[in-house]
Design goal:
The complex is a heterodimer of chains A (about 210) and B (about 575). By secondary structure, chain A is mainly α. Chain A is built from eight helices and two strands. A two-stranded antiparallel ribbon of chain A has the order 1-2. Chain A is rod-shaped and about 110 Å long. Chain B has about 575 residues and is an alpha+beta fold. In chain B, α11 crosses α14 and α11 crosses α17. The chains are: A mainly alpha (about 210), B alpha+beta (about 575). At the A-B interface, α1 and α2 of A face α2, β2, α9 and α18 of B.
Chain lengths: ~210, ~575
């Protein structure tokens, strides 16, 4: 009888102790959770501030002004697209040595797609070519010439390292920036001007 | 303690001794429980005060005494179709002062003036010297300012976070996003209709708007509005196949950050809420109705030599040719007389029923609450058919017009205008889309007529090198005090491109444009609105990588020359 009572008592004390421990841990956990949630909310608020600032800085009319000021680029026009069949022919070795503009892929692949009505970028003429001159290739039209990569007209221009010497990168706008001013410089003009280094551009934007 | 246990050993056998023993044992037990308890407490105390080597819990956070955390989540964001932010909410701190804790108001005011450059030092001093326990110094300061003020370390200055709605693009899409009241509830535009979803704050509401195109349309409309000294302007770009609204501009507009200081004129959404007599752009629909009825074909001719007199109305032509004209000629020269005669062939109810199918007698189902009710003659008399055929006596919103035109050119299937992207949750219950309104053959004919109008007719200013554009001009005289005023025009142009396989419809509209020096005294749709549409298409085409059609301009004349008196041959038509 006494032993049972003792046993129960000990058990009760043990349970009480464990309960106390558990509730302590729960309280600790809750405090920790509240802290983490508060921190996450704070981070979220900071993120929102940064996103808002980013969007504010990327307002189309602001980008347009900056683009007019710092980039010698003009919006692409419909008439600047050319048909594959309109491109001049040129032996491939000449192309390789003197014309760094042509993308090696572009000079081979388009043979198949030559019937496509429109080339989005520097591509290759194949049209009525005798089969023997297996590689009678292609000089891009002046207008198209400036486009850095085939088909990716609206992607950002490649970093300086990726560009080949002597290639002016023009027509496409960086990023999703809309075409600027109603009276932009023609693409041909853009080509004559010294291409700016990307780093310079970034610097000038940063200063701005 | 040991004494107790010693006495315990001297147990006396017998009943009395056993009772005594029991009591003693109980005492020992109870005492030991208390002893253990106190022991535990003192151990824990030692642990906490002497042994624990952890920093005191943070009781003070950066905000100091005044920071009260936001309880509800920040209002959700609105983004455009490419994920560009159009509206967001920021928890912006406001700074207040408890003047009882400020010893030297002059010094504090001087320091604050260096941070809060928007306020004068004298004003700050007045607030700080007022002696009140709570006074707002400035609402909605920037994080940088908060940091600087906090660094001053004055105990009397505190911060409170407040939810503030921010529209990064400013007024660019103000009529679409709408705005919120001081409590952050949406009361216009998407903010209102999407209020429930935005208040939950989890997923952004993605719109079909493309901010780039929105900007192009906004820029071109604003430039033309200034050039022609127009009172107002409106424009829409719509995907003709899906009904998605790519851009929607109503000028003048307003700053959604300060809706209370905006004028009613600025807040008025001319695209979806305003209804106007559209004028000749309605010839699209009356001509389509006549062609679709089968009673009229391209070869049908109508006498346009004499104005039509009916009741007190006289219907005459703006670009009068005064001869018998074929349907394509009537359309490209925008003859009121010819169009009215064409509408007559369908009988009194024909045009009315067609307009009903076009959605001209009901609101446009669109995801913003600003939806205008059209005005139309009731009862519909014969003269109503005649005037409505060229867009007078019936007033619809520009959105009505673009939607109906989209349905005409996309192959003949009605579209539901979308502002909220389909993959995000649409706000409105979808009304049945895809109802066929005209046959594919009629749709093709309408496209040919529109192409002809731009190639050779009144819409030539909308022509774009590289893209085949089709369109229809509209010039309505505004009804002022019951009379049509020759000098108050509502000039518009609806363009569709590429017209061979239409993808986008572009509408531009000017309210009361005045002739500019280079328009030879004209302020009609062809001179004011058509160039806007042309420029928008010129910039939008490459942006959307729409392949230009290079050699096909002028081909339309090959098909249509037989119907047009004195038409240039196809070869000369091509070099325009």
């Amino acid at each position: 009888m006494r032993k049972t009572a003792m046993l129960w008592l000990v058990l009760a004390v043990l349970c009480g102790g464990m309960l106390f421990q558990t509730s302590q841990r729960v309280t600790d956990g809750r405090t920790q959770l509240a802290g983490i949630e508060a921190a996450a909310r704070k981070e979220d608020e900071h993120l929102r501030v940064l996103q808002a600032e980013w969007s504010y800085l990327n307002q189309p009319d602001r980008l347009e002004k900056l683009s007019n000021q710092f980039l010698h680029l003009a919006p692409l026009k419909g008439k600047q697209f050319a048909k594959v069949a309109d491109l001049e022919q040129r032996p491939v070795d000449v192309v390789a040595s003197t014309n760094p503009v042509i993308d090696p892929e572009a000079s081979v692949a388009p043979v198949v797609t030559a019937e496509e009505p429109v080339a989005i970028a520097p591509v290759v003429k194949t049209a009525p070519v005798p089969a023997k001159i297996a590689t009678p290739l292609i000089k891009p039209q002046p207008v198209v010439k400036a486009t850095p990569q085939p088909s990716l007209v609206w992607k950002a221009p490649p970093p300086p390292a990726a560009r080949k010497p002597g290639v002016a990168w023009s027509a496409p706008q960086p990023g999703r920036n809309p075409p600027p001013s109603p009276a932009p410089a023609p693409a041909a003009q853009a080509q004559q001007q010294q291409p700016r280094q990307f780093g310079d551009l970034m610097k000038s934007l940063g200063v701005q | 303690m040991s004494g107790i246990f010693q006495r315990d050993k001297m147990d006396i056998p017998g009943e009395r001794s056993s009772t005594l023993g029991l009591a003693k044992t109980r005492l020992v037990l109870v005492a030991s429980v208390f002893v253990l308890g106190y022991l535990a407490i003192s151990l824990r105390l030692t642990d906490l005060t002497l042994l624990r080597d952890r920093p005191a819990p943070e009781t003070a956070s950066m905000g100091g005494e005044g920071v009260k955390p936001l309880t509800k989540p920040l209002r959700g964001t609105i983004v455009d179709r490419n994920g560009e932010l159009m509206a967001t909410s920021l928890a912006m701190p406001s700074v207040f002062a408890n003047n009882t804790l400020i010893d030297d108001p002059k010094q504090v005011a001087h320091e604050l003036a260096g941070i809060l450059t928007e306020q004068k030092e004298a004003d700050l001093l007045k607030k700080l010297a007022s002696g009140r326990k709570f006074v707002w110094i400035q609402r909605n300061i920037t994080p940088r300012q908060q940091y600087a003020i906090n660094a001053l370390g004055h105990p009397g200055l505190g911060f409170q976070d407040e939810d503030r709605r921010i529209y990064p693009a400013g007024s660019l899409a103000a009529h679409i996003t709408g705005y919120t009241d001081v409590d952050g509830r949406g009361i216009a535009g998407i903010e209102k209709l999407g209020n429930a979803q935005l208040e939950k704050g989890d997923k952004p509401v993605a719109l079909t708007i493309d901010l780039r195109v929105q900007h192009i349309l906004h820029r071109e409309l604003a430039a033309s509005m200034e050039k022609f000294r127009a009172k107002a302007a409106a424009g829409v770009v719509m995907d003709v196949n899906t009904g998605e609204i790519i851009a929607m501009v109503s000028l003048p507009d307003f700053d959604p950050h300060h809706p209370s200081s905006a004028t009613d004129d600025g807040k008025f959404n001319r695209v979806s809420l305003g209804v106007f007599e559209m004028g000749s752009t309605f010839k699209l629909f009356s001509t389509a109705a006549a062609l679709d009825s089968g009673r009229v074909s391209f070869g049908s001719t109508f006498d346009t030599t004499q104005p039509i007199k009916i009741g007190r109305f006289t219907i005459s032509d703006y670009h009068a040719l005064r001869r018998v004209q074929s349907v394509p000629e009537i359309f490209m020269h925008s003859s009121n007389i010819g169009t009215a005669r064409m509408a007559q062939t369908m009988g009194p109810e024909g045009l009315k029923d067609f307009y009903k199918r076009m959605g001209f007698f009901a609101q446009v189902p669109v995801d913003i609450p600003e939806r205008g009710w059209p005005l139309f003659p009731n009862p519909w008399r014969e003269v109503s058919t005649l005037t409505a055929s060229f867009g007078h006596g019936i007033a619809v919103s520009p959105l009505h017009l673009v939607r109906a035109a989209s349905a005409l050119v996309n192959g003949g299937v009605m579209v539901v205008p979308q502002l909220v992207k389909k993959d995000s949750k649409t706000l409105l219950p979808q009304s049945p889309a895809g109802e066929r309104v005209v046959t594919p053959q009629t749709s093709l004919k309408v496209r040919q007529l529109m192409e002809l109008t731009v190639a050779e007719g009144t819409g030539s200013k909308a022509a774009v090198e590289g893209y085949n554009v089709g369109g229809k001009t509209g010039t309505a005289e505004k009804n002022k005090n019951g009379r049509y005023d020759h000098n108050s025009l509502m000039s518009s142009f609806i363009g569709v491109f590429p017209i061979g396989e239409p993808r986008y419809a572009v509408l531009a509209m000017m309210d009361e444009p005045k002739p500019a020096p280079d328009t030879f005294g004209y302020a009609t749709g062809g001179w004011t609105a058509a160039p806007v549409v042309g420029r928008v298409i010129e910039q939008m085409g490459p942006l959307y990588q729409i392949p230009p059609s290079l050699d096909t301009s002028g081909e339309i004349m090959n098909d249509m020359a037989q119907y047009i008196k004195g038409a240039k041959s196809a070869s000369t038509g091509a070099d325009r």
